[in-house]
Amino acid sequence: MTAPQDLSSSQLVRLVAGREVATRIRDKGFIISSVVILLVIVAAVVIQVVTGSGDEESRVGLVGGDASVVTALEAQGEALDVDVEVVELGDEAAARTAVDDEDVDGALLVGDDAELLVRESAGGTLEAIVQGAVGQLAITEQLTEAGISELDVPEVAVTALDADAAADGQRVAAAVFGVVILYSLLILFGQFIAQGVVEEKSSRVVELLLATMRPWQLLAGKILGLGLLALGQIVTIGVVAVVAALAFDIVEVPGDLISTVAIVIAWFVLGYAWYAAVFAVAASLVSRQEDLATVLMPTSMVLIVAFFIGIQAASDPGGLLARVTSYIPGLSPLVMPVRQAAGEVALWEIALAVVLMVLAIVLVVRLGGRIYSGALLRTGGKIKMREALAAERA
Amino acid sequence: MLEFDGLHKSFGEVRVLEGVGFTVAPGSMFGFCGSNGAGKTTTMRIAMGLVRPDAGEVRWHGRPLDQASRRRVGYMPEERGLYPKMKVGEQVAYFARLHGLDAAAATKASADWVERLGLGPRRDEQVEKLSLGNQQRVQLAAALVSRPEVLILDEPFSGLDPVGVDSLADALLGQVREGVPVVFSSHQLDLVERLCDSVGILARGRMVATGTVEELRRREAGRLLRVVVPDAAPGWADGLGGARVVSEQAGDTLLELTPDTDDQSVLGAALRTGRVTHFAWQQPTLVELFRGAVAAPSTEEVAA
C-alpha cells in the first residue's frame, strides 16, 4: 500500500467534482431529463420541417413537346417560387390516368392547342406556370419566325433595403431556442446543486468532508463537476441542433447558426457559474429537502423573469427593456444572446455585460462562500444569512 | 503524544470550554466522559478543524494539527454522516481518497476494510438500504480505511447492540496495539472502564479529573469504608469520632473517614456489636467517580 499523501486544493476539488459526475451520470433523474431535452429538440426540428416554409412543389405531366418546354416550365416555376418537376408521359391516356391517380398535379398536352388536364381545378400557381411557359414558348417561336433570335430584354436590378432581415430572423429564432434550452438547463442544474448541498447537510456527511477539506473546495468541486456535465449537455444539444438544422435544410446561413449556438453556450457558462453558486449558497441555509423550495424561490424568480425578458427581447431587441436588462448580471445571460443574435448590439455593450457578470460571479463566490462555510455545520431550521456570516469564523 | 492544550471556546455568551487539556500517548486509549453538553463534541470538533478555538491548540507529535496532518486522523462524528445513496464500497474508497490514498490503494483498502468489518456481501448496496448497525460499521470503515495515525471518535458505541459493541471494541483495541492513540467519548462508563488506559472527565467546560482509572480510584479510595455488622443495632456508628455515616441498611454501613482516623478503631467498635462479616475499603466504580466529579463543583477541580 502506498503511503497516503497530502492533497492540493486542485486535487481535492477534482475528487469532489469526480464524485459529482460519477454519481450524477448514473442518476435516473439526470438521464431522464437529458433524454427528454434531446427529444424535445428533435421534435422541434421535425415540426420545423413538417410545417416549414419550404418551397412549394408541383409535379407537372408533359405529353409531347421538347426540352424547351421542360426548361420553360422550370423557369416559370422558379420565378413563382415553386419547385417544378416535369414528368414526361407517353400519351393523353397515360396523362389522364396520372392526373386521376394524383400522380401529377396536372398534365400539359402540347399540340397545336395546348391543353392542361387537371383533376378538379388547376389552382392559381399551376395555371400561371403552365400559361407562362406556353406563352413564352409561343412568343419565342413567333420571334424566331420573324427572324429575331436574340431579344434583348433589360433585366430589372433588385436592391434589398434590408438584406439581412431573413438571416437576422433565423438567428433570433435560434437564439430564442437557445434561451429556452439555457433556462431549462440552469433550472435543472441549479436544482441538482441545491439538492446535493442539502443531501450532504441532512445526511451530516458534510462534517466528515470538512474534516478533510475547506468549504470552498467542496463548493468549487460541486459546481465544477456538475458544470462539466451541464456543459457537455448543452454542447451536445448545440451539435445535435446544428446538425439537424443543416441536414433538414432549415437554415440558410449555417455560419450564423453556429455563431449563435457558440454565443448561447458562452453565456451559459457565465450564467451557470452565477446561478449554481447562488443556488448552492441558498441551499446551505436549510437542512431538509422540504425546505429547499422556499430558499430557492427568490433566485428561481429572477431566472424566470430573465427568461421572459429574453423571449420578449426577440421581438424588440433594441427596446429599452432588452437594452437595460442585457447588462444586469443574472438577467444578461438570457437577454444578451438574443440581442447579439439580432445583431443590434455594439461590442462595448457585450464587453460591459460580460464584465459585470464576471464581477457578480466573483462577489457571489466570495460572499456566498462565507455564508456556505458558516451554514454547513449548522443544522436545524432555516439559518439567516447574517447568522451564517457570523458563524463562518467560529 | 496527542495533546489537547488549554482549549477555550465560547458561543456568544455561552462559555463551552474553559481550558480543556489532556494528553493521549501513542498506543493508548483515552475515554472522554462528561454529562451532555459538557463540551466533549466541541473539543473533538476543534481537533478536526470544524470549530475554531478562542484559545489553545491540539498538537500531534508536538506540532499543531493543520489540514495536512488532519488527513492522517480518522474521525467519527457524533451525528453519523454518509452519503445515503452511495454504494458501500465506493463510499469507503472515496473517503480513503480524501485522506490522500491514490485510486488503486483506496479501492484495495476499501475492499479490505469492508471485508474485515463483515460487510463484504453488502459492498454494492446503497448505504441507506443497510441496517443501522451496518451503517455504523461503514462509518467505522470510513474512519479506519486510510490507516490513520490518530483516531478521534465521538460516541462510537452509541446505538450498537452488545455484539456490535464487542466488535467495535476489538477493532479499536487492534488499532491501539498498532500504536495509534485513540480518543473516544462515551456515556457507557463500564465500557470506558473496561477499555481505556486513561480517562478524562469533563464538567462545566473543564477537566475535573484525568488519569488512569487506577489513579482516579486511588485518589478517591481511602475515604469510604464498608462495614457489614448484621447484629448491630441501627445507629451503631453514630458515635464514632472521625467517621461519618454515608448510608446504613440492616447493618450494611458505608462510612466516610477523615484522613487521620484510624480504621482499626472503627473495626474495634464494629466487633463490639457482634459479628463482622465484611470490612473493606470501598473501590469506587467509575460511575461513582463520575458522579462525584460532575456533581460537586467545588471539590477536586483538577483542571489540567
TrEMBL record, chain A:
Gene Ontology CC: one annotated term: plasma membrane
Protein's UniProt keywords contain Metal-binding: no
Transmembrane stretches, start-end: 29-50, 172-194, 223-248, 260-283, 295-314, 345-368
Record localization: Cell membrane
Domain annotation ABC-2 type transporter transmembrane: ranges: 28-367
GO molecular function, one term: ABC-type transporter activity
Primary location group: membrane
Membrane topology: Multi-pass membrane protein
Keyword annotations from UniProtKB, A to Z: Cell membrane, Membrane, Transmembrane, Transmembrane helix
Stated name of the protein: ABC-2 type transport system permease protein
Organism: Blastococcus aurantiacus
Lineage of origin: Bacteria, Bacillati, Actinomycetota, Actinomycetes, Geodermatophilales
From TrEMBL, chain B:
SUPFAM superfamilies documented for this protein: P-loop containing nucleoside triphosphate hydrolases
One GO cellular component term noted in the UniProt record for this chain: plasma membrane
Membrane topology: Peripheral membrane protein
Name under which the protein is recorded: ABC-2 type transport system ATP-binding protein
Record field: transmembrane: none
Gene Ontology BP annotations: response to antibiotic
GO molecular function: ATP binding; ATP hydrolysis activity
Protein family: Belongs to the ABC transporter superfamily.
Keyword Transport set for record: yes
Localization, UniProt: Cell membrane
Protein's organism: Blastococcus aurantiacus
Keywords (A to Z) from UniProt: Antibiotic resistance, ATP-binding, Nucleotide-binding, Transport
SMART domains membership: AAA
Domain (ABC transporter): residue spans on this chain: 2-229
